[in-house]
Design goal:
With 148 residues, this protein is mainly α. Helix content is 82%, strand content 0%. The protein is built from six helices and no strands. Helix 2 (9-39) packs antiparallel against helix 3 (45-79), helix 2 (9-39) packs parallel to helix 4 (87-114) and helix 4 runs antiparallel to helix 6. The chain is elongated, with a radius of gyration of 18 Å. The mean pLDDT is 97.
């Protein structure tokens, strides 16, 4: 199996990058929706529309893209286990774990909005909206530059 994966490594890498792009697009957009949702009156048409948009974004794009990114990333590690011996890769994986935690918090906050139990301000979500892009910057630098 690892020979097959190694022979198709560039395809795995392409599919991994595509998955990550979709995951990050959703991770950048979801907290922005929360900013506007936090400013909407509970029970208003606006609030109900945000609930639908948030649910569809998370379940239809963000969750599947994260799963695909993990799948293709895992297959790349299987095809090239030497990655596990490189320092930059360990830092990258750590940042991916942090990104996954952010994903989990976004999912939890979406459920709170769905139950009309949001406790955070739009300012809070404006700050949270910066986490995924900052993490992506460091992850991309690690993958491209491989500084150590």
């Amino acid at each position: 199996m690892s020979e097959f994966l190694a022979a198709h490594y560039l395809w795995l890498k392409a599919l991994h990058v595509i998955s990550v792009i979709f995951w990050m697009a959703g991770m950048a957009y979801l907290p922005r929706l929360f900013v506007y949702h936090a400013e909407a009156d509970i029970g208003s048409d606006k609030s109900e529309t945000f609930k639908i948009m948030e649910r569809r974004l998370l379940r239809g794009i963000v969750n599947p893209a994260m799963i695909a990114a993990f799948l293709f990333g895992g297959l790349m590690i299987w095809a090239n286990p030497d990655l596990m011996h490189q320092g930059w890769f360990h830092v990258k994986l750590t940042l991916v774990i942090v990104m996954t935690a952010v994903h989990g918090f976004l999912a939890r906050w979406r459920k709170a909005f769905e139950r009309d139990q949001n406790v955070h301000t739009s300012r809070f979500y404006r700050i949270i909206n910066e986490a995924p892009p900052v993490l992506v910057v460091f992850i991309v630098i690690l993958v491209i530059v491989k500084p150590f």
